[in-house]
Amino acid sequence: MDRTDSILETLRMIEEEKLDIRTVTMGISLLDCADQDGERARRKIYDKIVRHAARLVEVADGIQAELGIPIVNKRLSVTPIALVAGASGDADHVAFARTLDAAAAAVGVNFIGGFSALVSKGATPGERTLIDSIPEALATTETVCASVDVGSTRAGINMDAVARMGEVVRETADLTADRHGFGCAKLVVFANAVSDNPFMAGAFHGVEEPDVEVHVGISGPGVVKRALEGVRSAPLDVVAETVKKAAFKITRAGQLVGRLAAQRLGVPFGIVDLSLAPTAEVGDSVARILEEMGVERIGGHGTTAALAVLNDAVKKGGLMACSHVGGLSGSFIPVSEDIGMIEAVQLGAISLDKLEAMTAICSVGLDMVAVPGDTPAPILAAMIADEAAIGVMNSKTTAVRVIPAVGLGVGETLEFGGLLGRAPVLPVNRFGGTAFVSRGGRVPAPVHSFKN
Fold first, then answer.
1. Tens digits of residue pLDDT in 373-416
2. HAMAP family from the entry (predicted)?
3. What is the pLDDT of residues 225-283, one digit of tens each?
4. How many CA atoms lie within 13 A of 35 on its CB side?
5. Which SS3 state, helix, strand or coil, does residue 187 take?
6. What is the arrangement of strands in the sheet containing 366-372, beginning at the earlier edge strand?
7. For the whole model, what pTM was predicted?
8. How far is residue 352's CA from residue 332's CA, in Å, rounded to a whole number?
9. φ, ψ for residue 332 (rounded to 5)?
10. DSSP readout, 268-332?
C-alpha cells in the first residue's frame, strides 16, 4: 500500500468509522509528596501535578490538529492516594480528593484517577481511612475518580474489603441521590487491578511506574465492524484474522500519538491500551461487532464465544503493532456507553447474569450497570464478590462499576449524558449472599497462583 492509500484509509477510519484516541493519560508519582503534615502534603501534590501536567492539554490538542486524529480525553492518574495520605494521620482524606480536583481543574483535564487503595490482602489504617472517605470525596468533587483493589490471583480475595465496598457504593449513591447516584460512575472495585490503566474510572499510577509517563488508550469499534462487513459468511478463523489486522492499524495510530506526546512533554512513553472503548453514538459499538460476527443480538446464546474471538484477535493484532502494550487491552462492554448494549437491555436480550458470564472474557467486568435505586449494600457486595472470584480464578482483571439509580426502578433509564451515555435499569437477583459475604476473612489464593 503506497503512502496515498495509507492516508486515505486513515481519513476514512476517522471520518466514517469513528476512529479516535479515547484518552492521552499522564501518570504522575506522588510518593515524594507524603508528609506527616497533611496540609503540606497537599501543597506538594498540587504543585507537582500542575508542574508536570501544565502542557498536557496543549500538547494533545496540537497533535490532534497536526495528525487529524481526534483525541477525546486528556486525563491524569496518580499514585494511590492511600499510600501518600496515610503518612499524614488525617482523620479523613476528603481534603486530598479536593486537592486532586483543584489540580485537575488548573491543568484542564477531564478526569483524574488515583483516589485509590490496594487492599487485596489486608488494609492499613491509611487505606481504611481512604475507603471511608470515598463517598464524600466523590460527592464533593467533579473530576476525581476512585478505585479499590479487593483481590488478586496471588493473594486471594479480601472479603472484609468486599463487604465494606458494598456499603461504600451504597453510601456514594445516597450522597449523590440528587443525580440518581452519579457518584458511583466514578468508582470502580477491582480484582487484579493493573498499574498502567489509562481509562477511567479505574486509573492509578502504580508504585513500579516511573516518576512521570504518558499512556494512550485507543478506540475504534467502528473500524473493526467495517472490516468485518467485508467478510460476511467467512469462517471464524478469517474473522479473527480480519479483526487482528484492524487492531494492528488502530494500535499503530495510538502508538504514534503516544510517542509524539511523550517526546513533546519530555517524559517517557508508557503503554498503549488496546481496549475497544465504545460510546453511545451510532457506529461506535462493541455490541454491533459481535452482531456483525453473527450473534442475533448481544446477550443471546453465542455472545460469550464471539466475545472470546474478538478479544483474542484484538490482543494479537495490537501486540504485533506495538511492543509496549498494557493497561486492560481487550474489549469494553459498558452498558451505558454502547448503543448496542443499551438496546439489548431494552429488548430484554441481556441480563446481569449474562453480563457476568461475559466478564470472564472481556477486559473488565460489570461496567456502568444501573441497578434499582434501593438495591441494598449486601447485594452490591455479593456482586463484587462474584466478579472478584472470576478475576482471581482466571488470572485476569475484573471490576464492578455499578450505579444504584436512586429514585429509579427496573425499566427506567438513567441519563448520564456525554461519553457516559444512558443506562436502562436492570433487575438484580434479590436472593443475595448476605450471610456468605458477612463471614468476612480472606478467600485463599487459588492453587494455580503458586508459580515460583
1. 999 999 999 999 999 999 999 999 999 999 999 999 998 988 88
2. UPF0210
3. 888 988 998 999 999 999 998 888 888 888 889 999 999 999 999 999 888 777 666 66
4. 12
5. strand
6. 269-273, 212-218, 21-28, 71-78, 111-118, 144-149, 187-191, 398-405, 366-372
7. 0.91
8. 15
9. -90, 145
10. -EEEEE--B---SSTT--HHHHHHHHT-SSTTSTTHHHHHHHHHHHHHHHHHHH-S-B-SS-SB-
| Grid coordinates belonging to 359 | 466478564
Furthest-apart CA atoms within the chain: distance in Å: 65
In the numeric block, the cell 492511600 is attached to 82
Angstrom distance (rounded) from CA 378 to CA 373: 14
Grid cell, residue 412, equals 427506567
In CATH, which of 3.40.640.10, 3.40.50.1970, 1.20.120.430, 3.20.70.20 is domain 1-444? 3.20.70.20
Instruction: Enter the C-alpha cell of residue 45.
Output: 501534590
In the block, cell 480472606 appears at: 442
Could you tell me the three cell numbers for 308? 472470546
**CA–CA gap between residue 174 and residue 15 (Å, rounded):** 41
Q: CA nearest 116: which of 399, 423, 431?
A: 399
* Per-residue DSSP letter, 157: E
Q: Give the domain ranges of the chain.
A: 1-444
